[in-house]
Design brief:
The structure is a single chain. By secondary structure, this protein is α/β, with parallel strands linked by helices. The radius of gyration is 16 Å and the shape is globular. The relative contact order is 0.21.
Length: 179
């Protein structure tokens, strides 16, 4: 365990098992229909990479970069699209792969934006859902784990661009981000 992590919440093995289950369910639900999986960068990239490998169906990937945090560790609610998708989504099944659903403000914005582009469907696969943190409604068809509303790192989640490479999800020691 990394010295800045207070405790491990979800192990590497638990992650692998749950992502495989999610991929199998997604493949069954789409029954071989092509699927565009969209990662919201940067945090969800690792989850998306593992998830698409677990989906036994035709899959394409695309990426968006959005920001509502600025330099804070809490969402401002003002969403900026930094990088949009490379191609159109009209008439396509779209699955948004999200690392963590906390306030829901950013993800709610992304879902509405993509739905306005006339896809066949838009669904959300959230790796983590923070209990009691939602301020905007977001329906997640696929969820990995419920987790406490704490500052989490690992498996793509970061603080100041660090800790994304940890193979587990852990609680960051508050001394790190509170000084």
């Amino acid at each position: 365990m990394h010295e800045d992590v207070q405790k491990v919440l979800i192990t590497r093995e638990q992650i692998a098992e749950r992502v495989a289950q999610m991929g199998a369910q997604i493949a069954a639900d789409y029954q071989g229909e092509p699927l565009l999986v969209v990662s919201v960068l940067k945090g969800a990239a690792i989850f998306m990479a593992d998830l698409v490998r677990a989906i036994d169906a035709p899959v394409e990937m695309d990426f968006m970069a959005v920001s509502s945090y600025g330099s804070s560790h809490e969402s401002s609610g003002v969403v900026r699209v930094i990088k949009d998708l490379n191609g159109p989504v009209e008439g396509r099944h779209v699955l948004i792969a999200e690392d963590v659903l906390d306030s829901g403000l950013t993800l709610n914005y992304v879902v509405k934006m993509l739905r306005s582009r006339n896809p066949k469907s838009v669904e959300v696969a959230a790796f983590l859902v923070k209990e009691g943190a939602q301020r905007a409604p977001v329906e997640c068809k696929y969820t990995g784990f419920a987790c406490p509303d704490e500052f989490l790192v690992g498996y793509g989640l970061d603080y100041a661009e660090r800790y994304r490479n940890l193979p587990y999800v852990g609680v960051l020691d508050p001394k790190v981000y509170l000084g």
